[in-house]
Amino acid sequence: MNDQPLVLIVEDDTALRRFLRAALEADGLRVVEAWNGAEAVSLAMQYVPEVVLMDLGLPDIDGVEVTRRLRAWMTAPILVVSARGHERQKVEALDAGADDYLTKPFGVPELVARIRAALRRVARTASAGAVLEVGALRVDFEARRVTLGGAEVHLTPLEYRLLAVLARHAGKVVTHGQLLEAVWGPRRADQAQSLRVHMTHLRRKLEQGGGQRLFATEAGVGYRLLQPE
Amino acid sequence: MHRPTPEEMLVRAAEEEAKRGKGHLKVFFGAAPGVGKTYAMLEAGQRQRAVGVDVVLGWVETHGRAETEALTVGFERIPPRRVEHGPIALAEFDLEAALARRPALILVDELPHTNAPGSTHTRRWQDVEELLAAGIDVHTTLNVQHLESLNDVVAQITGVRVRETVPDALIDAAEVVEMVDLTPDDLIARLEQGKVYVGDRADRALDGFFRRGNLVALRELALRRAAERADADVLSFRRDAGIEEPWPAGERLLVAVGPAPQGADLIRAAARIAGRLHAPWIAASVEGSSQTDTARAQVAAHLTLAERLGAEAVVLRSERAVDELLAYARTRNVTRILVGRPTHSVWRDRLSGSFLDALVRSAQGIDVIVTTGEVAPPHRPPAAPLDRPTAREVAQVLLIVGVASAVGLVTRDLFDLADQAMIHLLAVVVAASRVGRAASMVAVLAAVAALDFLFVPPFYTFAVSDGRYLLSFAVMGIVGLTVSHLTHRVRSQADAALERERRTAALHAMSRELAGLNAPSEIAHSAVRHLRVLLDADVSLVRAEDGALEPLAGEALGPRDLAVVQWVVGHGQPAGAGTDTLPGGRRLFVPLRAGSGVVGALGLDLGDRPSPGRRALVEVAAATIALALERAWLAESSETARLVLETERTRTSLLSAVSHDLRTPLASITGAAGAALTGTDLTAEERDELLSTIRDEGQRLGRLIQGLLDLTLLAADPAAKMEWVPIDEIVASAVDRLDAPNVSVRLPEPLLMVQMDPVLVDQLLFNLLENATKHAPGSEIEVSAHAAGDEVVVEVADRGPGLPPGAAALVFERFWRAPDGHRTEGAGLGLAIAAAIARAHGGRVHARTRDGGGSVFGFSLPVRHE
To answer: CB-CB: which of B726, B736, B745 is closest to A200?
Structure first.
């Protein structure tokens, strides 16, 4: 039991915290609870959890700020929980170093799946190879070759770079800002429209009329390359 | 016994109302410097201090007198303000500091003092007025020679014209005027002892101003003024006590004012007479069309003086001064007309008629008083200087005379010399009626020369054989000049009338245009545009609201100008260039006064000092603009109020509708949970049943709350987050989020870009998709998009039961739900939100029955191009 991953739950609502603990323990995860930002930082140092599940609306320190403080020294994935309509807050949290987000209300299966995915991502990153495979898609980073079902797909340099950035963070939401900075360079926030157009072309080339879903679009936040199962 | 009539009581109530909240003024009044006014003031202050009044020393001039100096000990002092004036630093009374300190009583010496340039007011008495307006009691000192109405008398007595005068109205409004008296001999004795002026200034003072004769006269003046003041106090006491007024009511004085410099003395005389009669008085000037600008400015200065002395000032416009003046006097029930003694030669009256004579003859029922000074109104300026004739005029004139001579030459055998003279005279008349006076003289000379050269024997020389012809020439000259003069006058009258007409029309046009506008900024810009033309000046409009200034239109103002505006708004009076208050800048500022008070200020850069006509125009314009702006602002705030009310109403109806939908699932959840907890003998299936009820109802509750949250999301302005987004992306994100099987997407080859808030449109499409999955469970759902003209249409089609008849128009209504048979769970908010999002983007939603079964829900958004 002790080798099970440890989850730090940061949530100020007692009922929700009780429910989260029950749901995660039922799935075999170990749980530590914090009910405000300050305690989250101190418990994280004490226990060094494998995953942090954090509500953004905390009574003392802003959840985005807690994310930033944790990310300063911690590599474990941070999942933030936020309501719909608060897209700006999500983007801020992701830019501050959060790995993923959950939108309230969410179901237990989704929660557990996201936590497991985050853990897998950590394991995979540790053994990150030069080739990525998602279903029929195969990206060979060394040869800069992209194939779909064995057939080579011709991407423009920009499309390739977009795909490479998303692939490197496969399963994770990459915000518009992060993509823009990685592909266009710093301070190119005005290229958002161009980013959307290139992403659409990329998706059209790779998904082929809705045949296979590779990308998830998070409206107002960013994109995610779906995780290979 | 006379009880006050209701009207009188109203007047008194108004007076008391005006006084309430204002500070009380006490004036220590003396005949000459050195009588001990400052001393008396300080003594009074010390007495007040002794009884615990919060007394502050604002300004005091001790002139180094030791005993006066001793009395200042113990007072809190307002530190003087340092004003850099060229190389020297001047110390001035610090009005701002005094207002900030807000004592109960402040002592301010030397009321007539002129402040250093750059001060808020040009004069200290204006500082005192402001202190009083702020509710601070003021003690101050004043010598008789500084009183405006006595200024000229004092000048006659002492031979020294005092420039620093104080309006009588201020003294009349004082609560107490305390006469500080010292006999001339005592004063001279004090002076000799060096108690008044220290050192050698004492000797010089004794030679000049402080001669015994002067002092006696000044003392008499001061005592008389103080007595008049006491008289007024008695009068107001009698009025309060209901004692019958001892003099016949209804005296009214009119003083006729002209442009001569002596007019100022005439006005002061009028003020004294009116004061003695206790009569209201009017200063009137009749302006003819020929009035020059300098004369007009002089009259304006006189009228300003009259207003300061308490008169009502009017400018009448007419060529017939006497008739106009008398007509006006009769309408105003004037009992006496005051005019100045004529100073011009008697010959002028003989030639052009005497104004005074005409006035006295026609003034039946009105007394005419002639006093020293100049007779006023019929100001005939020296004939306007002749303009140089233009080349065109000369050519015109020579042509006309030339034609006359040609006609004369042709008809030389038919007509004799007298006829030729007539023909040339006609030419002169024709020419004079067309050209200026200088050119008319050219016409006369040309006609005389032509007549002489061509028709007067000996022919073809300028010699004249008969002296009689000279007379003809002279007649010709006089006729020409007279015609030209009359023409000129008629023309200038017409021009003046035209100018007035133009201004009236322009003003009218402005007010008409302003009346048609509703947006305050449009009104402001239109007003500025009109005024620029109307006044030929740089114009600025500033709004004042709760002490904050906001430029509306026109020229930008610097911090200095804004300080003036602040004052104008605070006091509701004009200030800036051409006024007595803050005259430093280039601009004149007039308050914009509307029904609710001063709503802003109008700034004008009029260049030179404004003429009275223009100033009146400015005030009319300011009033028009103020009313138009106030109307627009009121409309705006009522529009805002209406919107707030509308929002509030929507929210209330929403809440009342939603509260039912919220309670139902809550009741199910609570009930099911209670049953699951307490029911001991439940089968596993029953327990599962209860738990799934809780889950389903919880989800329903969640959807409902999310719907409400989405509505609040919509309240924010979507335009702020507009971006160009490919339709593909929206379809992909909404379909991802729905995560349902059997959804197919069909998008056209060219990328469709739409300007939108992606989060909201994602929600819009998601709601349509969710609606489809709810109403057509298990059916294939098809999402498609296409361009149609300037719009992009996105549709969600299903193969469900389709729409009930007549529902297409209703499905997007808030809380509409399919009638029984089509009914499913849900609060009915989803489609309403979808419709609201589409509307917020300038688009719309639609629903129809699908060919071959099922329904189609869709939305269209305009494709905007910058």
So the answer is: B726
